Amino acid sequence: QVQLVESGGGLVQAGGSLRLSCAASGRTFSRYGMGWFRQAPGKERAFVAAINWSGGSTNYVDSVKGRFTISRDNAKNTVYLEMNSLKPEDTAVYYCAATTSFMATIIKTYDYWGQGTQVTVAS
Predict the structure, then answer these.
(1) Could you write out the three-class secondary structure of 60-97?
(2) What does DSSP assign to residue 59?
(3) Cβ count near 115 (within 10 Å)
């Protein structure tokens, strides 16, 4: 069982930066691949980024490549999403999730989810 708690969301101007954190409970955090998803108003939840158990492999949706960076610190049971050059279209609730699959991009392959953190990018 893994419990996930996101933090770090907020209101930022376009072009600004935010760093999201996702703290995980449990001693098995390092066994899980981790992902970030987002859900904008009126839209379905969508994949943003994923990282494997060691942090050695990452994957991103095309729209955030070069702007967002996913990373993890297994000693702290935490995964991060560094977001730079933010755009209004990045506005959404951001969720972290844990999976036993490798580099999963599909929602149903994730077993555990956080409650989400709101990111609002003003133009």
Answers:
(1) ECHHHCCCEEEEEECCCCEEEEEECCCCHHHCEEEEEE
(2) E
(3) 11
Contact 86, 16 (CB under 8 A): yes
How far apart are the C-alpha atoms of 36 and 113, rounded to whole Å? 10
Question: For residue 34, how many other CB atoms are within 10 A of its CB?
Answer: 29
Neighbours of 101 (CB within 10 A): 16
Relative to beta strand 92-99, strand 117-122 is: antiparallel
| pLDDT tens string 79-105 | 999 999 999 999 999 999 999 988 889
Are 17 and 5 in contact by the 8 Å Cβ rule? The answer is: no
3-state secondary structure of 45: coil
- The whole-angstrom separation of Cα 11 and Cα 122 is 7
The token pair at 21 is: 């954190």
Give 56-84 pLDDT, tens digit per residue: 999 999 999 999 999 999 999 999 999 99
Q: How do 10-13 and 117-122 pair as beta strands?
A: parallel
